[in-house]
Design goal:
Helix content: 10-25%
Radius of gyration: 36 Å
Largest sheet: 9 strands, mixed
Number of helices: 7
Number of strands: 17
Structural class: alpha+beta
Strand content: 15-25%
Distance between the termini: 113 Å
Length: about 280
């Protein structure tokens, strides 16, 4: 009776569900709403970070560029810029140590050239060119640094870095080139000494940096180091003395080697290799 009387007095039962409004609804309606993230800022395709601009110009890595920027080596439109993260426009005049830079990314491709390819960008006679071998390497317009004869094999560098090309092909820089030479007959010791002393060819005197027999090989195999860029110069040295070069392979060029680079294949130079080339005096 007591329980019935209490209910009659209007006291609702604690767990009663009648009416449905006696308790606050629970759920997501009362959960705090997350703040909307600000829309990302649109990047300006006409702007690029200064350190990237310098790296793309082939000067150094981005990290090194930051060091040069902080040191005041870089100017933009005639004013020194030392601010990290500074952005420049493609039309800006960006200079490193006073030299104007180009935003075009410099690329460097090393090819181990096989026989029967000529070193030219095109050939009106329809002969195969070295450009076919690196066609998948880059979309940039790369040009060979110097040349190798059609039947000469070995290292050939390609780049769109005109300044480096001039340096590597100018005789005053004495770029080191080593060839593995195969002759049709053994080279006499007397003729070896003649080459060491220097020869007088039809287009003037020629001297080699060094020449020696290949250790453990027949006397018709030699290694010769030379820095001259004259046309067919290695072949002409031996032809002058009555020998025929049956096989010629450039195994070292400006400190670059054929290590892990099969014949007919190419690779990009490493960052350190590019730096080494630029440091050639």
């Amino acid at each position: 009776m007591m329980k019935s009387d209490n209910n009659r007095k209007g006291k609702p039962a604690r767990n009663s569900r009648e009416g449905g409004n006696s308790q606050k609804p629970q759920g997501k309606k009362f959960a705090p709403q997350p703040k909307k993230a600000a829309p990302p800022k649109k990047s300006n395709p006409d702007e690029v970070r200064l350190n990237r601009y310098i790296a793309n110009a082939g000067i150094c890595s981005r990290r090194e560029a930051d060091t040069y920027i902080a040191a005041g080596n870089v100017t933009v439109n005639g004013k020194p810029v030392t601010e990290m993260g500074y952005k420049v426009k493609r039309s800006d005049d960006v200079r490193f140590d006073g030299k104007r830079l180009s935003l075009e990314k410099k690329e460097y491709i090393l090819l181990n050239k096989p026989k029967n390819f000529i070193t030219t960008t095109s050939d009106e006679k329809g002969r195969r060119t070295v450009m076919e071998l690196i066609s998948s390497a880059s979309n940039a317009r790369l040009l060979p640094v110097g040349r190798l004869d059609r039947n000469t094999m070995g290292l050939l560098l390609f780049t769109n870095d005109g300044d480096l090309t001039k340096k590597l092909t100018h005789p005053k820089h004495g770029v080191r080139k080593i060839y593995h030479v195969h002759l049709d007959k053994s080279l006499s010791v007397a003729d070896l000494h003649k080459i060491e002393a220097g020869l007088e060819l039809e287009d003037g005197p020629i001297e080699v940096d060094s020449i020696s027999f290949v250790q453990g090989a027949p006397k018709r195999e030699l290694g010769i180091e030379i820095h001259s860029g004259r046309n067919r110069i290695v072949r002409r040295i031996f032809e002058h003395l009555g020998y025929e070069v049956t096989k010629l392979d450039r195994v070292i060029f400006a400190g670059l080697t054929k290590k892990d680079l099969p014949r007919g294949h190419w690779r990009h130079l490493t960052e350190q290799e590019v730096i080494n080339l630029k440091n050639i005096k």
